[in-house]
Amino acid sequence: MDELELLKKDWQKQERQLPKLSYDDIYKMLWKKSSSLVKWIFYICVAEFLFWIIISVLPIKGGEISGKGTNFITITDWVLQIIFFIVILYFGFQFYRNYKSISVTDSARDLMKKIIKTRKTVMQYVWFNVGLFALTMVVVLLEVLIFDPPQPLIERISTADSTLLAWLIVGVFFAFSIAFFGLLFWLFYRLLYGLLLKRLNENYRELEKLEV
Amino acid sequence: MPTQLNKELEHKFVTELENNQNIVHKVCSLYTNDRDAHNDLFQEITIQLWKAYPKFRGDSKFSTWMYRVALNTAITLYRKSKKRVRTQDYDSVIFKVKANDYDDTEEQQLKLMYNAIKQLGDIEKALVFLYLEDKNYTEISETLGITEVNARVKMNRVKNKLRTILNP
């Protein structure tokens, strides 16, 4: 006889050796907390939404800039704020819809697909915020340099041996800081979601491979 | 009143799960390697089943519905099994083969077989599990979300893989 048939026969005979939980044992489990992947993803995503909303509300935009640039700054700021909130609403809605569509009674493939989609929405949201944050920083910095340059810096640069080189150094320093924070961010997310979704991604890939 | 209804629902659910708990235990022993993890996964599956229960319409059998939720939880939602070490010391209830039932070679073969299954990937395990549970290809394809043809193809591949693990 084929080994597999033998196995099947044996498998179906094993039932009496299985553990047996009582009604009360099972009843108690109903009130335990789930630690499922979806729950984790939900918490982390909500935390991300809140984090970026708080960042945007925090008054980090030192309001002392004066002079002819003020108008321009206010308008840019307003436009950015409006864009920001429209986009947040869009992402929030998408996230809610995707999250709600996750159902444990779907097929395994659909379930995984929906979880991945939910996470993707939030990743897009995060990258949008990172981009916007970087853009805001660049805009603010340019504004400061153009309209209200910090005198000590300007003096130092103009007294330097090579003005161009000094500016270049400032520029490179700035670019490096952005790249550094970008990298930190990327690493953080690789870790956060990489660990969380490693198994799911593997299994999803395996299922996808079946469908080619 | 809702509380009364809830009580009835609870009672109905727990009774059905109690009667069908074998399915969940079998999934747990396939996907975990020690007793703690087994109980953990059992609990998570129970929670998922209970959360989904209000939407269970009864147009499929309770057990059929259970297969899907249990496997989904094991394959996708369960998180604590990250450190799935392949230890053989788990004297899992399922994998203990009774000595008297078989002659030595058969017993030996079965042991090898169960060990081989333990080494498969999550999806392959699910396929083998559904095969061992005598599910037809329609049900297998619906549970995993792949076409019937692909389920068939993949099943044959897994069977061959098991055979080669057994007879290298």
Distance between the termini of chain A: 33 Å
Q: How many domain modules of chain B?
A: 2
Using the coordinates shown, work out and report the CATH topology of the largest domain in chain B: Rna Polymerase Sigma Factor, Chain: A
Examine the secondary-structure arrangement and name the CATH architecture of the largest domain in chain B: Orthogonal Bundle
The pLDDT mean of chain A sits at: 82
Tertiary shape of chain B: globular
The biggest sheet of chain A, with number of strands, parallel, antiparallel or mixed sense and barrel status, is: none
Residue ranges of chain B: pLDDT <50 for 5 or more in a row?
81-94, 96-102
Q: How far is the N terminus from the C terminus of chain B? A: 64 Å
Strand content of chain B: under 5%
Number of domains of chain A: 1
How is the biggest beta sheet of chain B arranged?
none
What is the overall number of helices of chain A?
7
Feature tags:
heterodimer, A: 212 residues, mainly alpha, 0% strand, elongated, B: 168 residues, Rna Polymerase Sigma Factor, Chain: A, Arc Repressor Mutant, subunit A, 70% helix
List the helices and strands and how they pair.
The complex is a heterodimer of chains A (212) and B (168).
Chain A: H1 3-13, H2 23-29, H3 37-57, H4 70-101, H5 108-147, H6 151-159, H7 163-210
Helix pairs in contact in A: 3-4, 3-5, 4-5, 5-7
Chain B: H1 2-31, H2 35-52, H3 62-77, H4 104-118, H5 122-132, H6 137-144, H7 148-166
Helix pairs in contact in B: 1-2, 1-3, 2-3, 5-7, 6-7
